Amino acid sequence: MSGAAEVTLAATITCPQCGQSAASTMPTDACQFFWDCPGCGALLRPKQGDCCVYCSYANIPCPPVQAAGGEGRSACCG
Q1: Do 17 and 35 meet the contact criterion of CB atoms below 8 Å apart?
Q2: 28 pLDDT band (50/70/90 cuts)?
Q3: 5 within 8 A of 68, measured Cβ to Cβ
Q4: Taking Cα atoms as reference points, which of 3, 6, 1, 4 lies closest to residue 60?
């Protein structure tokens, strides 16, 4: 056992305005600060305290937060 957390790149992001969900592959080399909803066109930004739109609106947090075991949401991309 290596002790490293397994990281999942496939996520489902959901618009809080219209409920539209979309499958997405999270980047591993950068944080995604914006997401255009394909349903209503809303431009999503991270909630206060979150580093990216995945941590705010997806079913799983971004890869750096996953690797840290869910800790450090506000600092993972800092």
Answers
A1: no
A2: confident
A3: yes
A4: 6
> Measuring CA to CA, how many Å separate 42 from each of 11, 53, 55?
19, 13, 17
pLDDT tens across 32-75, in order? 999 999 999 999 999 998 889 999 999 999 988 888 776 655 55
| pTM summary value | 0.82
- Residue pair 14/57 in contact (Cβ under 8 Å)? The answer is yes
Residue type, 42: A
3-state per-residue secondary structure call for 8-67: CCEEEEECCCCCCEEEEECCCCCCCCCEECCCCCCEECCCCCCCCHHHHHECCCCHHHHH
